Structure formats: C-alpha cells, structure tokens
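Hi everyone, sorry if this is the wrong subforum. Our group has a chain we'd like a structural model of before ordering constructs, and none of us has done structure prediction before. Sequence below.
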Amino acid sequence: MIYDFCIIGAGPAGIFSAISLAESGKSVILIEKNSKIGIKLLITGKGRCNITNSEPDFREFISKYGNNGKFLFSSFSKFNNFDIVSFFEENGLKTENERGNRIFPKTGNAKDVLQILKRNLEKYKVEVLKNSPVLDIVKNKNKIEKIILENKKEIEAENFVITTGGKSYPLTGSTGDGYKFAEKLGHKIIEPKPALCSIILKENIKELEGLSLKNVNISIYFENKKLIDNFGEAIFTREGMSGPIILDMSEKISEYLDKYLNIRLKIDFKPALDFKKLDDRILRDFEKLNNKDFKNSLNKLLPQKLIPFVIKKSGIDPDKKVNSVTKEERNKLIHLLKECEFNILKLDGFEKAIITSGGVDLKEVDPKNMKSKIIDNLYFAGEVLDINGPTGGYNLQVCWTTANAIN
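Answer:
Right subforum, don't worry. Here is the predicted structure as tokens:
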C-alpha cells in the first residue's frame, strides 16, 4: 500500500498530525520506534499534562516564543490554544485553568489526554506501527520515495512527516533522530541545546534540597552587569536550582555560560520590600522578641529550612541576643536576604531537560503548512523545529498547532 502520509514519531505532534490528516480523509501510517506511543506526553506537567496556556491575547501568546514566534502566526491563526481545549472537551475531557493560565485536565492525569488521542487514532483508522525504528530515508531528486525500517520493512507514501521531537529525556525515545534525517535530506539544523532545565551551582547546597521558594526574584549577573531576571517560584535541588523561574531562564543562561567564564545568580527572598522596609520589618521582629537568641528570631520572616543557612551565611552568632545585634550585622543580614549570591557551574543536560532549543531551521520550512522548502513531499511538526517557549503549556501548543497545519 502507498499511504497518503507516513508520519515518523508518535509523540504529541505525530499523533495529532495523524488524527488531523486522517480526519480529512487521508490514509495515514504512524511509525514509532518505542513499544508504546505518547511516552513523553505522559511525563509532561509532572504527569498531569499541561495541555496549553489560556493567554487570551494572540500577539502576547506568540511573543512567548521570542524571535521565532512570528513563524507561528499563520498556523496559530488557524488552530490556537482555545481550539485544542475545545478538541479535548468535545472528546469528553474536562479541563481547568490553574495558576499562570496553565490548562490541565481536571483529572490531573496525562493518561486521560493520551487515551483521547488513541481513541481518535482508532476512530479515523490510522495505522500505527510500533517497535519500528527508521533505518533510512530513501529519496530521489527532491522527493522521498520510501523509508526503510530496522527490520528491513519498507514503507511507501506520497508524503512524509518528521515528528520525532528533540533530544531531551532520551529515555522516552527523543534521541535526535529527526535532526539526522533532516540533515541528510539537506536541511540545516540549528545546534540543539537543552532548554527548560535545572542549573547546577558551584556551592554545596545539599542542606537546602527541596526548599520551595514562592514570590522571589532571581537575577543573573556577569560581574556587575545584570543579564536577566525573573519573578515567581523556584526550588532548590540537591546540586542546584529548578522550578518555573529557573526553567524559563535556562536557555538564556546557557547562552551566557558559552559567552562568559563566570556568571552568578542572586536571589531576592523579599522582593516586595526594599532595603529600608526590610530593615524596619526586622527591627519590629527583634523588638517583639527582645531577649531571644538570634537563631530563634527569623521564624516569621523566612521558611524554616532556609533559616540555618541564612544564620550561617550572615556570620552573626546564632546565640547572640537580638537586642545585641549591631546595625552593621543587621545590614549584612538584609543584603543577604536581598542579594543572596551563588555561582553557576552549568546546566543539567538533555537527560533532564524538558525540551530542546534549536532544530530544523525555520527558514527552510513553509509556515503555512510546515512543508519543507527543500524536499517536495516532506513536512515537520513539533519539537524537531527550531522553536520553543517557556513553561506553562506553550511547548505542547507548538506540537498541536504545527501538527494541525500540515495538509
């Protein structure tokens, strides 16, 4: 059989493009090298699946992808964040809007999202071939003729779609296969790098592991120059930091690590208070506690797990009475709370990165339908393309939108 479309890679982009094409009457075969489809989808949103983001402003949504966001204008105008929510709700999955406009299934289970996608594959009679790694793609002039699987089986189709994802979480099957295929077919690949990943610090911060920070401001510095900053939530890991703030800054941090020898991270634990107001707050606490030891004076100001670290870093004798703490010591404490400094060693690698930045050069892909400008019957969708956004459902939306654009 010669299919209308052969799709390589059964992640969210591959599955959704298969559904969209089959719904329009095309014969579709979906090829997956793993024994199951949608493996990476199951771990998105910590297993809850952050389907998309409910940001209502079209241009604001597109701006989240940086300079490459303009590539999505055409396809996003045809299928956007509200369209994907409608798709799932029409298929019986209720959703809810959480902090930061993140859209999740009400069940809080990514399996329910995948189950709906699987049902639609069956409904539209998409042939799914699992345990089938692609060995080679055979082309003649500017057209692909067939793909050859590792088991030597050959698949012929009128059109081919590469939706193999990036290189992040390689245990799910995302090992950069699509980049190799695209490059062999003549496409330029923008260097893939881990994105939305944790950072490793030079300092030993094991005592802070698991400490969750809310409403803090984190800035990245080279010497005295502030490079970027972000406000929100973060968490200390065994070797460094993660959480929404860090993940969203990680791509920029990667660029700066390539550029500068040493960059630093500063945490403002109390961004709502300037230095003077924070000093006043500490003085009020000290007055109430009067004869208490310094080590017992920060309980209302800081999370319990942070207190021993701050006391140690402040250099103030923990057994010193608060009414004996000098202005100089208090000033040092205030600067520590407003500018707690760490040195960045590196980013976590692809093994723990949520997504990959880089990929197939967008200049070589038609933004209206994701068709290759080099190979006449080749298309791309999802993370294999050089476009990525912050946390909050933006990267899954790229998969849905680009998948739907193929025709």
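For your construct planning: The chain has eleven helices and 18 strands. The chain has a mean pLDDT of 95.
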